[in-house]
Sequence to fold (429 residues):
Amino acid sequence: MILEATKAGADAAMEKEFNPWLAAEARFNEAATLLGLDDGLRKVLKTPAMEVTVHIPVQLDDGRLEVFTGYRVQHSIARGPAKGGIRFAPDVTLDEVRALSSWMTWKCAVVNIPFGGGKGGVICDPSVLSQGELERITRRYTADLMDIIGPERDVPAPDMNTNEQTMAWIMDTYSMHKRTTVTAVVTGKPLNLGGSRGRVEATGRGCLFVTLQALRKFHMEPTETKVVVQGFGNVGGKAAILMHKAGMKIISVIEWDGALYNPNGIDPIALQKHRQETGSILEFPGAEEVDKHEAMFLECDVLVPAAKENVIHSKNAAKLNAKIVCEGANGPTTAEADKILEEKGIFVIPDILANAGGVTVSYFEWVQDRMGYFWNEQLVNGRLEEIMVNSFKDVVEYGERHKVHNRAAAYMLALDRVAFAIKLRGIYA
Ligand code: NAD
Fold:
């Protein structure tokens, strides 16, 4: 009986630790307290500027009418138009969209791009919907949000289960209503419809730039750097390839179905080809297979968690054997684990900085669309490098000046920038 009660208590504690909104709030509160923000400003910074719920009637392929619910939350427009993705999933909630939109505010502020934060979602199950049904949902959702989105107001992007095609539909619907083509209303569009070169690799490339800065800080040579990557998708796969090209050794790749290890380095380009051909990273000739639950604790210089949230938590953080953690994913470390990593002296490049390469190139896409003049990839990558390197320095210097760890520094810097914009603009009454 006592054992059961203890287990229930432990489960509840883990559930609380894994709740992303509570995690976001914990980070916000820590930074706001360290900054000494007054209650009024805290309220303004915390509360979303606008929340819209729409009920979208859509005719399904079999003729039935269905009503889907969608949200768009603009957390902040203090530093510029709201910016953030739209996700399609059966379990989308307004609370989730709220939390994710505030995350975007801090991410845009930390890399100092002139955007606020937003997020959207539609409650639907894309796995059972046809392309035609998804298109009708997307177009009606866009039409219902006509008055709140736009290049100067709120600029959506892809997120879970939405993609370039979804963005093309949004752009077209918005443009039809405006009677003129408005490519800058969304980012993440196909290249020949106003998308930006370098967007696909941007998040992984941003991870590379900040990791190189961290190596430099600790006088570590890229060619002597051992990397473990969790998640071999858009972020982790691209980061692994770019880090490999920069001379680092990818000693382990961890996926949902298994993990690979080679102390002499895995060739991620060959691995990507192998995965495309076989559908899995397993049975790759260039590495041995190891326990996927243990690979994250291999001794390495850099760990890149780039799969999902909450993988580093209070029960496993002490086992980490990395010098640097570059958070490719959103929220891979729980607030409880932050303290453990700090005590272990692990240098964490927090998600709102490490994976901000994606939103930075989205910003470049918006700029190029508004100019009607498109940059070559070299220019995109060079400007991305400049922003990532400067932002890394800003965060690390801020942390050293205020004697706080990098995540607290990133949040403090972001809150400070948004609070400064609010104070300068004043409260309109
Ligand atoms: P993705 O779907 O392309 O890749 C994720 C990879 O992780 C997949 O290969 C998947 O099989 C693997 N994976 C899933 N569960 C796993 C598990 N339990 N263990 C190991 N591997 C697992 O997604 P992505 O776009 O690369 O996004 C990854 C993370 O990065 C997410 O947290 C996302 O929110 C964040 N992020 C992405 C971008 C972007 O530009 N794509 C930008 C910022 C943040």
Residues 226 and 249 are 5 Å apart (CA to CA). The two ends are 58 Å apart (CA to CA). Residues 202-354 form a domain with the Rossmann fold fold (CATH 3.40.50.720). Residues 203, 230-236, 254-256, 306-308, 328-330, 355, 358 surround nicotinamide-adenine-dinucleotide (CB under 6 Å).
